[in-house]
Fold this protein.
Amino acid sequence: MLPIPHEFAIGGVYMPPLLVAGFLGGILTIFTTKWMNHYRISRFFFYPPLVYVSILVIYTVIISTFVIGG
């Protein structure tokens, strides 16, 4: 079995792993959306905010599964 982290201690403050993964996913989403807006890729989406939330969820799941979880 893989060890599952129970909490992260950053500066003496304990944080759950999903909070850290969500924060990192949010940062990556900001960079991705800036890149998509710079190259005007977002104009092809029907509703860009929904696409951005989907990207946030995808990044958070990838980070929590592969980076934090194991």
Remarks:
- The chain has two helices and two strands.
